Every structure is written in C-alpha cells, then in structure tokens.
C-alpha cells in the first residue's frame, strides 16, 4: 500500500528529495539544522547531539559521503519504481525511529532505495519492513503489524531502530569508508542509550560488526576475539558504567533471506523474544 503525502498546509506534492523543515510527517530537521559535509563534521555533530531528537535531525541532513548523496537523490528523482511513480521521495538519510527511552536498540544495515529512501522512516514501505514490524508487533513492541508511510500511525514502545549506514547505498553495498563515517552517528546512539539499554538486535553481519565496533569506540568492554555473527549468536557487552548489554544476532530481514526460507517468522520471533 502506498499513500501520497501532500503538503499538510498547501496540499501540493512535496518535491523530491524533501527539503528539511517543509512539514513532511516525522521530519526531525529544520532549515537551521547543521549539515555535516565531511567525516570530521559528522564526528563533531554526532558527539554534540544532546539527545536523540537532535541526533535524528542532524543525521537526516547529512551530506558527508558524496557517492551516497548522489545515489539517494538520483533514485528519488529518476530511479522510482513504477508502482511509486506518484509518490514524493524522501531522498535523505534515514533518521532513527522508535522509543527514545527504549531499552532495546535494533541495528540494521542501510535504508532501501525505494523503502526508507522513499518514505523517510526506517524499514517503512518495503518487504523487509513488513517482516520486521509484523514480528515486533507479535513481540509487543509495535502498535500495528504494518508500516507503509511515515504518517501511518505506527508507534514503537521500548525499542528504537537505527542503521549502520543511514543512506541507501548502490547495490546495498556501502564502502568501508562510508561505514566508518556513518559509525560516528551510531557511536552517539550507543552513548545516549547506555544508561537504560538492556539489549541490541543486530540484523545481518554488517549490523553485528557495526554494533561491536561502535561499542569498542565508545569505551565498552567487548569480548576478544571478536564474537562471530550468526543467527541467534549472542555477545555480552559491558558499558563504560558497568551495565551489561546483550547483543543478539539475526539474519537480515531481506527478501533474499525471507523468500528462500533462510529466515522464517519463527526464527525471527525467537531472537526477538530474547530481547
């Protein structure tokens, strides 16, 4: 299901990509939100975010990775799927979504070109999101089992969703440099969540590696050698204040995994139950 989102005031279609501060449902940024244009600026702006609202706003306007910026905006203007031809596209990085005070953090890979890059909300508007939110609903974290637009009324309770890389990458493969640059946003996510965080769910090996690398960078105790990823894998992390955090791995909710049966609903439900 796709829902055109006219401007709430003028009724006109939003331009693509969507500029900050134009009234898009869930847009955390304003015209005055500082924009990171280099990796050094990402590190500085991430570290200076006082809370998740400010962090989300700064993430949502980031322009530090030229290849990713060019790709996400190309898709937003010229790369639309025919079924979404009448839809405005977000065309910006995907901010975090969910409960800012949640005790659980989900770390995904990156936005989908016609999913988050279209709707502006993590795992919204694609088949991966259909699987994830249905499972979170069954687990008691999501208010509804479906997610199709940023204004669809979905709410998360006790859980927040972020990604290792915040822009849709070509062929779903971010470069090492892009992953390192975006890692600063995840570092701040962990720091802000640390006082209450109980567990993390890493979707796929990239989410797993990103969570471990970020935990080390912010001074948490991480087992050595590095825990190996696998579906159902677990690792015990300890924050710099001595809180234990349980990292749980899951195969990613990609169509490649769900269509082939590599990941089933029962398997996903089982790891979510551990959170």
UniProtKB/TrEMBL annotation:
Q: Please tell me whether the keyword Iron is annotated for this protein.
A: yes
Q: Which GO terms describe its molecular function?
A: 4 iron, 4 sulfur cluster binding; DNA-deoxyinosine glycosylase activity; metal ion binding; uracil DNA N-glycosylase activity
Q: What keywords were assigned to this record?
A: 4Fe-4S, DNA damage, DNA repair, Hydrolase, Iron, Iron-sulfur, Metal-binding
Q: What Gene3D superfamilies does the database record attribute to this sequence?
A: Uracil-DNA glycosylase-like domain (3.40.470.10)
SUPFAM superfamilies according to UniProt: Uracil-DNA glycosylase-like
The superkingdom listed in its UniProt entry is Bacteria
Residues of the region (Disordered) are 1-34
One record GO biological process: base-excision repair
Question: Coiled-coil intervals in this record?
Answer: none
Q: Where is the Uracil-DNA glycosylase-like domain?
A: 95-272
What family classification does the UniProt entry report for this protein? Belongs to the uracil-DNA glycosylase (UDG) superfamily. Type 5 (UDGb) family.
Q: What is this protein called?
A: Type-5 uracil-DNA glycosylase
Origin organism is Pedococcus cremeus
């Amino acid at each position: 299901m796709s829902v055109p989102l006219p401007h709430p005031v003028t009724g006109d279609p939003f331009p693509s990509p969507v500029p900050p501060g134009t009234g898009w449902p869930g847009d955390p940024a304003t015209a005055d939100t500082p924009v990171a244009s280099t990796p050094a600026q990402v590190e500085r702006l991430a570290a200076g975010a006082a809370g998740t609202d400010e962090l989300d706003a700064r993430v949502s306007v980031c322009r530090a990775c030229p290849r990713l910026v060019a790709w996400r905006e190309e898709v937003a203007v010229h790369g639309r799927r025919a079924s979404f031809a009448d839809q405005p596209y977000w065309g910006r990085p995907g901010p975090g979504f969910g409960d800012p005070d949640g005790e659980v953090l989900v770390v995904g890979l990156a936005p989908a070109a016609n999913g988050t890059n279209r709707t502006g909300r993590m795992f919204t508007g694609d088949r991966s999101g259909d699987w994830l939110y249905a499972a979170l609903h069954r687990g008691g974290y999501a208010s509804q089992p479906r997610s199709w637009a940023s204004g669809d009324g979905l709410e998360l309770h006790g859980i927040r969703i972020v990604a290792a890389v915040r822009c849709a990458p070509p062929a779903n493969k971010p470069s090492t440099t892009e992953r390192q640059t975006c890692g600063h946003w995840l570092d701040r996510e962990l720091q802000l969540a640390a006082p209450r965080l109980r567990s993390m769910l890493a979707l796929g090996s990239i989410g797993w590696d990103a969570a471990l690398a970020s935990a080390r960078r912010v001074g948490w105790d991480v087992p050595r050698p590095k825990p190996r990823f696998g579906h159902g894998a677990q690792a015990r992390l300890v924050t710099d204040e001595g809180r234990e955090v349980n990292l749980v791995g899951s195969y990613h909710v990609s169509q490649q995994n769900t269509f082939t049966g590599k990941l089933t609903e029962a398997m996903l439900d089982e790891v979510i139950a551990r959170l």
